């Protein structure tokens, strides 16, 4: 059973988890998602919530439901790239905002980032 | 749908419910939350037709809830009661003779899922396993309403988890509605569609759990504190 | 049908151990008779024949058995109360069931009846065992003796059922009282029972009642038992009964049974 934050709808948290799995390629294009029930049992979440998660993903064109077969990750590479980009942008924007909040200038931030990555590569 | 209309219920010395008006929609998992003696169990017994309102009416699918309602309602009491002379399997078999909608194959499946030994005498079961058995009996019926009074109370975390998983594995919200009272609020937060707060026999509020997360950014516990303070 | 058999089986198993105890008591009555008999022989050297059939020492073997048979008028009542009290501790388990209260109570009654037959049957077998040595002596009376025993037993069964239903009725009343008036319920129940008995007794002494039930007279004759004359009086060779009275008792019992079921359906709370 999974833990969830209380301040965000659980269905949105599940959407994010599935999106991350897709971006990490743990779920590939065209791959079938778990059934609503299996997903509910695995994560200890109300099946109606899981259903809402899948509907939301469908609305975002990330998955599609085939009648009588289940829910599948879209095979539309463009959509998946969009998802990848949007997740990337989301994280970058959060990072930049936090840095700015702490009073770092843009240059400092970019420099810091470059230094950090270089150091990681050396190690 | 389960409808309470101006329902009051008095016992010998105290008023257990005070003018309750409530509509519980179908196809959801609904939690009733409140302190001890707030009237939770009374509400469930009314839905199961095991007690009668002093005032007002309780209807399940438009039918007044009397003893006959057990044809469409399965009720799990908070009391740890069973027929001591039976084994696990005999208990299941006895229930299957009493309820037309009891699915014996499903019962054995849930029994295995819950890792119960069919040949063990019920009186020799641990408390946790008796709790599991009661869940088997409740979920094996193909029944529109599943009413569970404190299904987690007194059970250790492992058993609680198996009860939650059992519940999620074997209910079908397209045809079934689950109503549950519990103290373990955090544990069921992700399980519930709706939550009803009751105090001193009065309904304080009724909310969609996801609505709390989305609009009020509160967990059920936080929200509960707020509702209690306001009352 | 399955639900009825399921209930019957459950109610039987619920009381299985108690039933075994009852059967052991029956055997104890048999043993007690023999114990008394053997003890007497030790004191009396030359048994004095003061009765046509047997001497006192032999008769004593039958006394505990006959008393045990007689006590069976309370058997079903006792059995049903024990069985209901087991359910009373966990009422929701018994009442969360789509079968009507008539069926739930009916299963208790039928089980009480079966248990009564088993226990009475055992006692009759034990009595017969004691009779075997005298069979040749009593062959002349055997027909009437059997008839008398049968009459005795049928009456006990009938009375036991009637009392059983009365007990059942008062059990349901007690459960209603308990949830309405709490600790006073025992007192109120005792008053109600006394009122009930008083009403019944007064009813039986009214002319209207007697007119109502005294029809369909039938007599049972035991002519060969004429020789059972003993010092205290004469054995009445004739027993007179009324079909009307039997019918009245039956209707009364059925009514009480239906009321009990109604009370459970509508008034008893978990």
Automatic annotation (TrEMBL), chain A:
Regions crossing the membrane: none
Domain of life: Bacteria
Listed InterPro entries: Tscrpt_reg_HTH_GntR, WH-like_DNA-bd_sf, WH_DNA-bd_sf
GO molecular function: DNA binding; DNA-binding transcription factor activity
Record flagged with keyword ATP-binding: no
Chain ranges of the HTH gntR-type domain: 8-76
Keywords tagged on the record: DNA-binding, Transcription, Transcription regulation
Name of the protein this chain belongs to: GntR family transcriptional regulator
Source organism of this protein record: Chengkuizengella marina
Automatic annotation (TrEMBL), chain B:
InterPro entries attached to this UniProt entry: AAA+_ATPase, ABC_transporter-like_ATP-bd, P-loop_NTPase
ATP-binding among keywords: yes
One of the record's GO molecular function terms: ATP hydrolysis activity
SMART domains cross-referenced by the UniProt entry: AAA
Organism: Chengkuizengella marina
Highest taxon in the source lineage: Bacteria
Protein name, per record: ABC transporter ATP-binding protein
Keywords annotated in UniProt: ATP-binding, Nucleotide-binding
ABC transporter domain mapped to chain residues: 2-225
UniProtKB/TrEMBL annotation, chain C:
UniProt keyword annotations, A-Z: Membrane, Transmembrane, Transmembrane helix
Tree of life domain: Bacteria
Presence of the UniProt keyword Transmembrane in the record: yes
Ranges annotated as spanning the membrane: 20-39, 59-81, 102-129, 149-174, 181-201, 247-264
Protein name per UniProt: ABC-2 type transport system permease protein
């Amino acid at each position: 059973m999974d833990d969830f934050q209380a301040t965000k709808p659980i269905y949105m948290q599940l959407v994010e988890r599935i999106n991350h799995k897709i971006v990490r390629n743990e779920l590939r294009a065209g791959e079938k998602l778990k059934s609503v029930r299996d997903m509910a049992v695995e994560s200890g979440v109300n099946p109606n919530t899981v259903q809402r998660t899948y509907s939301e993903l469908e609305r975002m064109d990330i998955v599609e439901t085939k009648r009588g077969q289940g829910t599948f990750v879209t095979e539309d590479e463009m959509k998946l790239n969009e998802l990848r980009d949007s997740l990337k942008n989301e994280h970058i924007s959060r990072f930049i905002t936090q840095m700015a909040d702490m009073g770092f200038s843009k240059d400092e931030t970019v420099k810091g980032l470059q230094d950090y990555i270089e150091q990681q590569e050396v190690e | 749908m389960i409808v309470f209309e101006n329902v009051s219920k008095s016992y010998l010395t105290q008023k257990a419910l005070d003018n309750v008006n409530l509509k519980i929609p179908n196809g959801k998992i609904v939690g009733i939350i409140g302190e001890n003696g707030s009237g939770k169990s009374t509400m469930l017994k009314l839905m199961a037709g095991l007690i009668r309102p002093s005032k007002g009416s309780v209807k399940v699918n438009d039918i007044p809830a009397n003893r006959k309602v057990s044809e469409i309602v399965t009720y799990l009491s908070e009391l740890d009661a069973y027929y001591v002379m039976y084994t696990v399997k005999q208990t299941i078999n006895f229930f299957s003779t009493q309820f037309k909608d009891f699915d014996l194959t499903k019962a054995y499946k849930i029994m295995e899922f819950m890792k119960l030994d069919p040949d063990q005498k019920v009186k020799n079961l641990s408390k946790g396993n008796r709790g599991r058995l009661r869940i088997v009996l409740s979920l094996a019926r193909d029944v529109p309403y599943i009413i569970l009074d404190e299904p987690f109370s007194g059970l250790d975390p492992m058993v609680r988890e198996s009860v939650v998983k059992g519940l999620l594995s074997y209910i079908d919200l397209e045809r079934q509605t689950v109503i549950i009272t519990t103290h373990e609020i955090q544990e069921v937060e992700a399980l519930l569609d709706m939550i009803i707060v009751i105090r001193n026999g009065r309904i304080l509020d009724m909310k969609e759990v996801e609505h709390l997360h989305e609009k009020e950014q509160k967990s059920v516990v936080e929200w509960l504190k707020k509702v209690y303070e306001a009352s | 049908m399955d639900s009825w058999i399921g209930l019957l089986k459950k109610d039987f198993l619920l009381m299985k151990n108690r039933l075994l105890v009852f059967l052991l008591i029956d055997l104890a009555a048999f043993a007690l008779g023999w114990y008394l008999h053997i003890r007497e022989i030790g004191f009396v050297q030359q048994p004095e024949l003061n009765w046509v059939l047997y001497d006192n020492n032999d008769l004593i073997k039958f006394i505990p058995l006959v008393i045990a048979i007689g006590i069976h008028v309370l058997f079903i009542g006792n059995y049903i109360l024990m069985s209901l009290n087991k359910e009373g501790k966990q009422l929701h388990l018994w009442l969360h069931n789509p079968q009507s209260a008539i069926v739930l109570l009916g299963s208790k009654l039928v089980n009480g009846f079966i248990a009564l037959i088993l226990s009475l049957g055992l006692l009759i077998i034990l009595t017969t065992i004691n009779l075997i040595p005298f069979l040749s002596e009593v062959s002349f009376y055997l027909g009437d003796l059997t008839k008398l025993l049968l009459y005795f037993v049928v009456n006990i069964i009938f009375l036991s059922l009637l009392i059983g239903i009365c007990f059942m009725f008062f059990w349901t009343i007690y459960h209603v009282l308990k949830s309405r008036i709490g600790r006073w319920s025992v007192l109120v129940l005792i008053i109600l029972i006394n009122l009930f008995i008083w009403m019944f007794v007064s009813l039986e002494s009214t002319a209207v009642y007697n007119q109502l039930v005294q029809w369909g007279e039938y007599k049972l004759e035991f002519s060969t038992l004429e020789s059972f004359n003993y010092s205290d009086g004469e054995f009445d060779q004739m027993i007179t009964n009324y079909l009307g009275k039997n019918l009245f008792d039956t209707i009364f019992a059925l009514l009480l049974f239906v009321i009990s079921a109604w009370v459970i359906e509508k008034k008893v709370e978990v």
